[in-house]
């Protein structure tokens, strides 16, 4: 079996430098090759100390002969082929080539470079590496590369040579959609990043991830995939090309979507107007979200009134909040005296008139527009003039909720994430009619509750669902189209690209019916062919396989 003692890395951008350091840290003799002396100097600055196992040069001809050549050049076919052909002439017949291309065919690069049966694709990640083999890759090369990846402390996932493979196919489209949101002015780069990290548990937000990758690299990869697949959703968002033209390439240039001369801003968005004073908060509803919001509100020091449908539900909410707080007491996060004070601030009842002196009321009833509009019509009757009325909706139109009132200027969205006492994110949603001071009140309140607000307009999905659900739907469609094992897709996206769960694991947890309903809503609103619900998702929902709650979704689960 090939030992791969000496490794050449062609191109020391983000991916090349990462792979060069990885191989050197595991004892391989690595020669990093960068044709541009200026780029080589920058690479030297970025490279970590690797105990003398790494050499850098602009000329491969004099370097020790390699057992493995890793091509990590920019996504330009002519550049890649020219270098691979030249290096092919310098290498012995047993040398293996690996390309890190995301947009081009590994098979075509292998054929044109002159090393057809000994070329593979390699897509790096933190824990997983995609190993792309062509129909004619020698079996000995497959086995040797699998063993090599394992020796590097990574898990190999073997995939076929199709556009974008797994990771790039899903990741680049998700990142491109994120850039498009910023392009439209719908949300700021900082808010998009905060929304996705806090709302989805990602290690890094999409705009910071683009900056880390390099905006030029991302744009080139997207363009290559668009040309290869004919899929216009891969065409780079115009903002990517504009930033690249300005020399704002991300971390490597000091600025991109963020400015790296200072820390990426994680502060709440600035208030566009003075917030209205809030001393007393109302909550309408008795479900999980209503209960959680009431607990958070009372725990933050606000007098809180919750209105339930029946006396029984009101008592159940009171008991649920007390149980939740008691768990915090047992963990030492709250004292018994604090628990008692919080419960004294919470009043649960059934009469809407009790909301008359509230400064802000949160509607948290069923996700049904007719039901919500009925609540807002009643709030319009009982709430005092100037009170802010907020809906907790995750998928319905805030504007449609406001239409049931005579005061649309006072209506906003406050989309808390479940469980509300734990999740830090709140999407503050403004309509075209929302008064600036009403929006400022929502932002100020979310901050006072210990949450991180992000501000966005009233469009289906807001920020998190607008980006997350298309990505999940893309994963289903990709696996179906390319006959991929869903476990492999999950391994790549969780192990290589920073998602806390793979897309199929996450859909089972959310509920496939919830995912399907949201994708259908997005498709109806945006009329984007790329948002057409994937057929396997429709079929599983029709069969009643909804995920963990039914015991079966994409995966079997031991209990519902």
Q: Give the overall average pLDDT.
A: 93
End-to-end distance, in Å?
47 Å
Strand numbers in spatial order across the main sheet: 3-2-1-4-5-6-7-8
Low-confidence stretches: none
> What global shape is seen?
elongated
Strand content: 5-15%
Number of DSSP strand runs: 16
Q: How many strands, which pairing sense, and closed or not: the largest β-sheet?
A: 8 strands, mixed
Number of helices: 21
Structural class of the secondary elements?
alpha/beta
Cα gyration radius (Å):
27 Å
Indicate the percent of residues in helices. Answer: 40-55%
Outline the fold blueprint.
Elements: E1 6-10, H1 14-25, E2 29-33, H2 37-46, E3 54-57, E4 68-71, H3 77-90, E5 96-99, H4 106-113, E6 119-123, E7 128-133, H5 139-151, E8 155-160, H6 167-183, H7 189-200, H8 206-213, H9 215-229, H10 238-245, E9 280-284, H11 288-299, E10 303-307, H12 311-330, H13 336-345, E11 346-349, E12 360-363, H14 369-382, E13 388-391, H15 398-402, E14 411-416, E15 425-430, H16 436-448, E16 452-457, H17 464-482, H18 486-496, H19 503-510, H20 512-526, H21 535-542
Parallel strand pairs: 1-2, 1-4, 2-3, 4-5, 5-6, 7-8, 9-10, 9-12, 10-11, 12-13, 13-14, 15-16
Antiparallel strand pairs: 6-7, 14-15
Describe the structure.
There is one protein chain. By secondary structure, the chain is α/β, with parallel strands linked by helices. The protein contains 21 helices and 16 strands. It has helices spanning 14-25, 37-46, 77-90, 106-113, 139-151, 167-183, 189-200, 206-213, 215-229, 238-245, 288-299, 311-330, 336-345, 369-382, 398-402, 436-448, 464-482, 486-496, 503-510, 512-526, 535-542; strands at 6-10, 29-33, 54-57, 68-71, 96-99, 119-123, 128-133, 155-160, 280-284, 303-307, 346-349, 360-363, 388-391, 411-416, 425-430, 452-457. It has an 8-stranded mixed beta sheet, with helices on both faces. The protein has an 8-stranded mixed beta sheet with strand order 11-10-9-12-13-14-15-16, with helices on both faces. α1 links the parallel β1 (6-10) and β2. α6 crosses α8 (206-213), α6 (167-183) runs antiparallel to α17 (464-482) and α17 (464-482) packs across α19 (503-510). The longest helix is centred in the middle third of the chain and has 20 residues, at 311-330. The protein is elongated, with a radius of gyration of 27 Å. The protein starts with 5 loop residues before the first strand and ends in an 18-residue tail after the last helix. The model has no long low-confidence stretch (mean pLDDT 93).
